[in-house]
Amino acid sequence: MNNVQLLSKPAAPSSITKPIELYIFIDPLCHKALKMQTMLRKLLVEYEHYFTWRYVLSTKLASLNSLSRRTKGCLSGVELDITHPALPSIAIKAAELQGKRAASRYMLKLQEHALLNTKNITSYCALIDIAKESKIDVDEFITDFGSKEAGRAFQCDLHITREMEVDEVPSIVFFSERIEDEGLKVSGMYSYEVYVQILQEMLNEEITCQPLPTFDELFDKFITLTTQDVAEIYSISEHQAERELKKRMLQQKIERITNDDVTLWRKK
């Protein structure tokens, strides 16, 4: 594994309640982010008792100041709608001001529309609609979307990306609860077993895997999954995964959403 580097801990890390903390650097709308998400879901299902995690948005964008002014104009009714490639990232940070779970629900719904090509996710109005679908506080989201805090939070993510010299996304930096220990940066994507091995080496002990959830428990946890997600989590073929998913669709526990390129399964 060549793309590994030791790093010092960030100046103001988030509070750690478990031995390991993961900084996951992604461009949320890049196809590689979805592959990373599949791996992370399996890691969460099996080893979440060992680590906390946070996404760091590493989209390479500019002109955030002018974007902030235009967004305020939109909120005041001067503009009916705007589009900009920075808007999805700022929207995720606006949702994050309502908590990590709200941000996760929002980003998953955003990725769902991006995958299915059902909304122009660079559109301000579309991003407001996604907030409604995500069941977060829409009024608060709109206020935060037009505030300086969301833009600053996104800029903070970009600063962390530069500070840790992350030049490839997705990447993960592993930090131990021991402040004196250096973090371990793993650039790019590797097999699932590599990340498990890193967890074990950083903990310096044999780690135990949690029992796999039932299908119902899995959809309670993640709401929307791809066939590949299910196959990876249960270590079965995609054909087997699809067969099991279709059974639950017939039981009206989940629904299938599809286009020519992708199939998603969502809890009803």
Automatic annotation (TrEMBL):
Family according to the record: Belongs to the SpxH family.
Entry-linked InterPro entries = Adapter_SpxH (IPR046404), Thioredoxin-like_sf (IPR036249)
Indicate where this protein is primarily found. cytoplasm
Write out the entry's keywords from A to Z: Cytoplasm
Report the subcellular localization. Cytoplasm
Q: How does it assemble?
A: Interacts with Spx.
Q: Does the keyword Cytoplasm apply?
A: yes
According to its UniProt entry, this protein's organism is: Lysinibacillus telephonicus
Q: Which gene encodes it?
A: spxH
Q: A cellular component term (GO) from this record?
A: cytoplasm
Name of the protein = ClpXP adapter protein SpxH
What job does this protein perform?
Adapter protein required for efficient degradation of Spx by ClpXP under non-stress conditions. Interaction with Spx stabilizes Spx and exposes the C-terminus of Spx for recognition and proteolysis by ClpXP.
